[in-house]
Amino acid sequence: MECTTKFNDFISAISLTDSMKQELRAAYKDLKYKLNKHEISKYIIATFLQGSFARGTGVRPINKDDKLDVDLVVVTRFDYKQMTPIQALKAFVPFLEENYKGKYRIQGRSIGINLGNCSIDLVPTALPSNTVQRFLDEAFNNAAYEQAFFRADSTINAIKKYAKDDGDWKNEPLKIPDKDAGKWDDTHPIAQILWTQTMNARTNGEYIRMVRALKWWKKNYCKNADTIKSYPLEHFIGNCCSLGYDNLASLIRYTLQTMASYSDSKPYLPDRGVPQHDVFGRVKEDDYENFIREIKDIRDKAKDALEEKDLYESSVKWRSIFGPCFPTYNKPTPDSDGPKFTKREDYSRPDKPSRYA
Predict the structure, then answer these.
(1) Fewest Cβ atoms closer than 10 Å to its Cβ: which of 89, 183, 239, 283?
(2) What CATH number labels 4-322?
């Protein structure tokens, strides 16, 4: 069965809490304020959110060691033809030493800043074309975006406002440094955000909820598939999203069926806006094989749970996939004609603490 109310409770339980969002807002606000005050600001054209936080697909950490990673794109005036990736990353070192000494690390394509309960990835990009600069300026360098910058939907709203026309900017990805490869790579986070919003609209808002559910399953219960990170998983789910279903349970069941239909050999997944980039490029073959094996297992469980006619038994079967955060209906007593329900007196709340420290 669809178990709609229990799915609603489950999604609420695994989503970011208000206190988590507030902590992220404070971290972002402080980082952006410090960037604007520092000499590095003269090289910055615009900043905006990307990643699962901006797309609305993030889930809460599962323990104190599982930090909430969020991404801030910093569009710079660095000329990728004149500056190497490592030079671009190290250009931020004076700023980092002054403001985040002992709390940062230079990574392959970004700078990770450890802020205790959360970690911000500062993602520098090279100087874009004049067309892209105009779009970024219109979308992000205005009072409205500044005021709403720290809300999760602010970037989505800003992009949608200025993305109605088919401007050339849509075909021009940004360039990010790849320190390990020693080259600049193309990326199009704005295309990823727009694609996610389009798919979510086509599924009446259920796509993003499905991504959260399957990300939670992957983090907690999918073993030996470590190189399938958050975005590659999300991208794969998006490619397999089955349209035409008006409830979350059915959408999950039939999307899993499509995912399981892929071969055991790792596919090539062209990125949104950058089709020459394989989203699964860094995924190991063994990890992919293990992942598909697990997907086939929960595909069968999801089919069984959806087809189960008893409401209590169906919720138990969904719980076998998603774990104890998925609540069950009350078990019917022997003398009852069907499952009994506890009257809902208030909004659903997760039974875990709202903070994740």
Answers:
(1) 183
(2) 3.30.460.10
Instruction: From the candidates 9, 71, 271, 287, give the one annotated as an active-site residue.
Output: 71
Residue 324 contacts residue 301 (beta carbons within 8 Å)? no
* Structure tokens that stand for 199 in this block: 């798919």
Burial environment of residue 85 by CB neighbours within 10 A (0 to 12, 13 to 18, 19 or more): buried
Output phi, psi for 151, to 5 deg: -85, 145
- Three-point CA angle 194, 196, 198, nearest 5°: 70
Prediction pTM value? 0.89
Q: Which of 30, 65, 69, 264 is catalytic?
A: 69
Instruction: Clarify whether 278 is annotated catalytic.
Output: no
To 10 degrees, what angle do helices 154-162 and 130-140 make? 130
Q: Is the pLDDT of residue 256 over 50?
A: yes
69 is catalytic: yes
9, 30, 79, 121: the catalytic one is 121
For 310-350, how does the pLDDT look when each residue is reduced to its tens digit (9 = 90+)?
999 999 999 999 999 999 999 987 765 555 554 443 444 44
Q: Is the pLDDT of residue 253 over 70?
A: yes
Average pLDDT of the segment spanning 160-185: 84
Active site residue 121: yes
